[in-house]
Amino acid sequence: MGKSASFGVMHLGIAFGVSYALTGSVAIAGAITLVEPIVNTVAHYFFDRWWEGRARPLPAAAAS
User: Fold this and answer.
1) Which of 16, 18, 27, 29 is surrounded by the most beta carbons within 10 Å?
2) What is the mean pLDDT of the chain?
């Protein structure tokens, strides 16, 4: 858990640093740093649902 938490902090630091370097704005960099992980989390949820759904066998009627 410690490794995951420290990676999360590092990820946020990098996101802020890159966003600040590109925009020059602390406010915009902060917003990107907070919004991006939220969007990724939601996208990951739907990706997992899609991924698991494609592994299920098709019903016999749909397969023919």
Assistant:
1) 29
2) 90
